[in-house]
């Protein structure tokens, strides 16, 4: 037994345990508006924070002490707590692309899923996205929507779509567009608002996500966006689409091959498929060095692998199962002949333009 290694590992495990506890406390701070109550107000007493947030001072004080212990809030002595400008951006600015408070959204509900996951390990059958949302309790749709909304609203149309040659002109002229696995529909609604001449369609398998898609379209007042349940029929395989997008969902599919074939048949001969899917290096050795390896593998066990194995014979790629060469082969099996990785820098995802 190597005592040094034992000590290092026990520190690592304690760090993981503390991380889980701190996550819960960040969730509380976000949920109860505590970070927002402190944002931009300089040093405050716990009484001032409590009064600003409309909460009981004694509990707020203890929460502030914890925040100071972690270093998210700075303790300045004399009972004064300060949320720095930097912490404010990360924890209190909802629409800022750098904001991280949204990662903690619905944490208790998502954590509760852990009680169901042992069944997957025993049976080999994963929990589908639709089952995850059973009873509307897991909050994954809301979590993903809050997590990704700023990116869709501030980056997709502005920086990603122009990377596909001629696409913006096509969308301005009027094209038929599909987003498969569209989640809460934010991408569809954002594109529909930006390109009123085009006709947008989203396909989803999770009923609660579809409800949210329709709410988002109504709230935005768009009339050129329609949402469909894949179980009522998938993409029409009639060559009528000019552009199909899949955001972070090819690896989630039980049969990505069926998806690729359906997309191939749905596109016209000049059409394009934009794939946004997690970056994988192809070997475990290299994947372990990815900056988001821990997040990715955890998300895989708890979500993406679950989805990909939720039917008998499911491909079960998991988050890191489709590195660029495997993705290219997948598209070629469906009939596509052009595959290009886009030069877009993203912490988690790779971008591909695929054409017939
Ligand atoms: C990681 S989420 C991404 C959602 C959305 N594209 C976004 O970026 O917010 C994957 C989505 O794929 C959907 N999905 C999984 N299998 C599907 C299938 N066979 N057909 C359509 N959607 C599917 C899930 O319900 C889930 O909403």
Tag the structure with descriptive keywords.
356 residues, alpha/beta, Arc Repressor Mutant, subunit A, 2 domains, 16 helices, 49% helix, binds S-adenosylmethionine
Task: Summarize the structure in words.
By secondary structure, the chain is an alpha/beta fold. The chain folds into two domains: 95 residues, Orthogonal Bundle (Arc Repressor Mutant, subunit A), CATH 1.10.10; 245 residues, Rossmann fold. Helices cover 49% and strands 14% of the residues. The protein contains 16 helices and nine strands. Strands 5-4-3-6-7-9-8 form a seven-stranded mixed beta sheet, sandwiched between helices. Strands 1-2 form a two-stranded antiparallel ribbon. The model has no long low-confidence stretch (mean pLDDT 95). The chain binds S-adenosylmethionine. S-adenosylmethionine binds next to α9 and β4.
